[in-house]
Design a protein that fits this description.
Elements lengths: L1 E7 L2 E8 L2 E5 L9 E7 L4 E3 L7 E5 L12 E4 L5 E2 L4 E2 L8 E11 L15 E8 L2 E2 L2 H4 L13 E8 L9 E6 L2 E7 L7 H11 L7 E3 L6 E4 L4 E6 L3 E7 L1
Parallel strand pairs: 6-16, 8-13, 9-19
Antiparallel strand pairs: 1-2, 1-5, 1-13, 2-3, 3-4, 6-7, 10-11, 10-12, 10-16, 10-17, 11-13, 14-15, 14-18, 18-19
């Protein structure tokens, strides 16, 4: 099932896709959806970021990009950087190379604390595509990774949440810039599983519905320039598209 968040004349609302329409619902985190009786044709829908997290976490040292010897570590990224599909990524000038990073993101569906490998995925509502935009050289100057990741619209999220992903540990990722494929990999190239990341995070922090965990970029980072059109496709979920300005 796909759950989206739409802009409507009466304001943002969540919806589930049924045929050619997004059927509006009251609460995407309810055990049973309550439908409002209204809908939006899929072709007319203005998609927003499908979640509005209070907590947005990235996972560092999840290997994939290097052979860093440290264990899993998590870091906070500002929720103010979350952006909708199609929103312009405002590249910070004069702060080094801007990379886009295509990743699988887990959206928490119910309160999660002290999870185990056995029950971690039961607390996930579903999965979406995330672009963890970064001024990469700033990470060398700022070990907390604040400076390089705080730009306007530096976390595009979407296009929707997929609740029935067959296997989050085996999701292929393709990054395309201006129509040319620049990176192909997937969550299968991350040494730490989605479940292991959730176990680690919830050992220290209780997560609430709507919080988002970015699971790491398995060699799916590409340097970009203003004017570049970025598409990140995760098999079984969809394509997140944005333009760098």
């Amino acid at each position: 099932m796909r759950i989206a968040r739409l802009q409507t004349p009466s304001g943002p609302i969540h919806a589930v896709l049924r045929g050619e329409h997004w059927e509006h619902i009251e609460d995407p985190f309810a055990e049973e959806f309550a439908f409002t009786g209204t809908s939006t044709p899929a072709d007319d829908a203005e998609l927003l970021a499908p979640a509005r997290p209070a907590v947005l976490l990235g996972i560092a040292q999840n290997l994939g990009n290097n052979d860093h010897p440290l264990p899993i570590q998590a870091w906070h990224k500002s929720v103010h950087t979350v952006a909708a599909p199609g929103a312009d990524i405002v590249a910070v000038r004069g702060a080094g190379t801007v990379n886009i990073e295509g990743e699988l993101a887990a959206v928490i569906g119910k309160r999660a604390e002290n999870l185990t490998l056995e029950n971690a995925l039961e607390h996930v509502l579903g999965y979406t595509v995330v672009n963890d935009v970064t001024n990469v050289e700033q990470n060398q100057a700022d070990e907390k990774m604040f400076q390089g990741k705080a730009g306007t619209n530096y976390t595009p999220l979407g296009p929707w949440i997929e609740t029935e992903l067959e296997d989050p540990e085996n999701v292929a990722t393709t990054v395309t810039i201006n129509g040319e494929t620049k990176a192909k990999s997937g969550s299968f190239n991350l040494s730490s599983s989605v479940a292991a990341c959730l176990v680690y995070v919830t050992r220290w922090l209780t997560l609430e519905p709507g919080d988002v965990i970015m699971t790491g970029a398995p060699n799916t980072f590409v340097a970009v320039q203003p004017g570049d059109h970025v598409e990140i496709t995760l098999d079984g979920i969809g394509t997140l598209a944005n333009t760098v300005v």
